[in-house]
Design goal:
This protein is mainly beta. 5% of the residues lie in helices and 27% in strands. It has one helix at residues 89-94; strands at 10-11, 14-15, 45-48, 62-65, 75-77, 80-82, 96-101, 106-111. The strands form 4 sheets. The protein has a two-stranded antiparallel ribbon. Strands 3-4 form a two-stranded antiparallel ribbon. A two-stranded antiparallel ribbon has the order 5-6. A hairpin with a 2-residue loop joins strand 1 (10-11) and strand 2. The longest helix is centred in the C-terminal third of the chain and has 6 residues, at 89-94.
C-alpha cells in the first residue's frame, strides 16, 4: 500500500505522485528464499501466501511451479538418479574406477573384484 496516500489514490485534493493515483506501488519487490527439498518432482507447486503484488484490495500469493530439465548424463527414476556407463569385460573382471556426475559435483566410484 502506498504510504503517502494510504491506498486512497489521492493526497488531499490532488492525485498522489508516489503511486500515480493507483493507491498502491507496483515496483516494491523483494526476494523469496526457496529451498527445494530432495525428491522434489516435476510439476510440484510451492505457495507463498501474501508475498505477491498488491492489487488494490489485498496482497496476492506467489506460486512457484517446478519444471524439471533433462540432464545429459543422469535420468530420474522416482527418488533415484541413474547413470549408464559402458564397461569392458577386462575392467569388470579386474576392477575399475569411474566418475559419475552428481547434481552439483562428480562422484568417484571404485569397484575392486
Amino acid at each position: 500500500v502506498c504510504h503517502r496516500c494510504q491506498g486512497n489514490g489521492s493526497s488531499l485534493s490532488s492525485r498522489c505522485h508516489k503511486c500515480n493515483g493507483q493507491g498502491h506501488i507496483l515496483d516494491n519487490s523483494h526476494t523469496i528464499a526457496l529451498n527445494l527439498p530432495p525428491g522434489t518432482e516435476d510439476g510440484e507447486k510451492f505457495l507463498f501466501s501474501g508475498q505477491g503484488s498488491y492489487d488494490g484490495n489485498s496482497t496476492q500469493d506467489v506460486i512457484v511451479l517446478v519444471q524439471e530439465k533433462e540432464h545429459s548424463e543422469l535420468q530420474r527414476l522416482g527418488l533415484d538418479l541413474l547413470a549408464a556407463k559402458r564397461l569392458s569385460l577386462l575392467d569388470a573382471i579386474t576392477g575399475f574406477c569411474l566418475d559419475f556426475p552428481d547434481i552439483a559435483t562428480t562422484q568417484r566410484f571404485t569397484a575392486i573384484p
